[in-house]
Amino acid sequence: MNTVTMKWLLRREFWEYRGSMFWAPLAVAVLLVLFIGGTVAYGLSMHHLPTHITINGQTVNGYTVGITLEAKARIAQVASSVYLGASLPLFALLTAVVFSYCLGALHDERRDRSILFWKSLPVSDGMTVLSKAVTAMLVAPLITIVLGTIASLLLLLIACVALAANGISVLGPVLGSPDLYLSPLRLLALLPVYVVWALPAVGWLLLVSSWARAKPLVWAVGVPLVGLLIVKWISLAAANTGGEPLGLMPYAQDVVARLLGGIVPGIWFTFDEGLPHALRPGANGADMGSLVSGSYATLAHAATWLWALAGAAMLYAAMRLRRYRDEG
Known about the structure:
The protein is mainly α and 328 residues long.
């Protein structure tokens, strides 16, 4: 593979779709910092922290003055382990961005006839489709991770400054917490897992984008849902005639979820044992290391890799279709 050509293809994809891949998440990140950070800062500056707290029925006055170093360390531990949760809206936006990008990546160039220009260049259909898949599964998530981390750090800094203005200085313990620096790295470590799980959905959406002459959204969503309804009808018919359902619905639902929901970050937990208990915030925050280990554990299932192979096969089919389907 020519790495220089691939680099320019990735640049092309970014510049053509920079509005949805960069400016849209940047705008959401700015709004998060302004509204959430502004709300926290304004609330603490105007109303301050309560001057007393009730513990086991006993009221303690002036507890903010007598807060212990152990309590500050615990506050810092919780804050540094869950602060990236503020970027969840950005990852929800990532799902919509990748979905819309994959549906239009190959269809739009046929609709506006720009495919004739791109095919005149010495670039193969395989590299072109592969660049679009890499953009969807790596470039877009990387941009979201960077912007989400920056926005979360700014919100954490605003919260620390607001607490310091009210007599609770936790900035030092927060900066000294290893989780503050490890959390973004753990998020980056999840990228390979996301690629494997997103491959079937990206392959399906790009296949539809390369094949559909019009309304790729209807085909991409409609075909799996119609298939699900047909399986449901067959299962009900078998139950009414033979007394027992065929048991096909779980498999059909799995197909629809992987084809349409594979691009959702963290979707793999819904196919395994759900969200690990260690990830649920408690008194000492959340064990984000379990997020990485639990995510990679889902790759131990054969079904995960079989679906990844199916996604690769759909990408190959999209490459072949692009070679011949160049009508407007």
